[in-house]
Amino acid sequence: MVLLVTSASGANGSGYGKLLAFDGDGELLGPFSEDARIVDPRGVGVDGTLLYLNSGSNRVLAINSKGQVVRETGEIPGLNPGGGNFGPDGRYYVGLRAARAIMAFAPTLEGTGETVLPPAVVPFPRGFAFGQDGTFFLASGIGPGGEGDNTILAFGPERKINDSWKVEDSELSPLDLTIAPTGNVVVSSEHPFGSPDAVSTIREYDRTDGHLVRVLAPDRGTQFRRPRGLRFGPDRKLFCVAQDEVVAFDFATGESLGPVVRLPGLNGQAVIFFG
After folding, report:
1. Helices and strands in the chain, H and E counts
2. Phi/psi at 10 (nearest 5 deg)?
3. Residue 119: how many other CB atoms lie within 10 Å
4. What DSSP character marks residue 161?
């Protein structure tokens, strides 16, 4: 099993613009795939033996363990995909950065995607995931132009906002969202977003009502700048990709385990284990 990281490029930063693979010791193995359709890669998800990747070339790709693209949507003008996650219905859900919406695709990637939330339902989507009971949690953050707000919304089965689930946290500025093994909601946060003095943390919220449970912070030897994608590993450790590194936490204790990957120029967007 390898650790995969999407590294942005171009307007999104000075990163590699590649899907990068790392071994268990954090050593760079190189690009996981050299397929030309992988451009400025973003969100990822795993379904069985396939890795689904959102490409800045306005398409979604499915990649096998050899790095070969075996399925794709084809180019969808204006798609501009961001984060990705599989839903309880087996479909692959993609955040649309320009439309400020969420679209679902069949795992075959055939046919057209279905928009599952109204366009611009939040000012700037910053990560989403499904809770253990099917609740759809959507982080709303600040965009590159300063537009947006800092909160997390919960949508019930009919995609109506659950007003009884409410986050009130003045130090939250979410960048990505995942669900913990406990069912709680976990986000990476940089507050104030884009500030040279921003404080980067991992923040956990109760799955039942949204109250702040605890804050995980890196140790002093970890830079932890510009945190983005979050994933739980096979051993239930929590991994977060950031500028120049991937940082791990023992989620059970909240202890920072420091960087497991160090790579200058890594403008990490998403992280996942595959293989």
Report:
1. 0, 21
2. 60, -130
3. 11
4. B
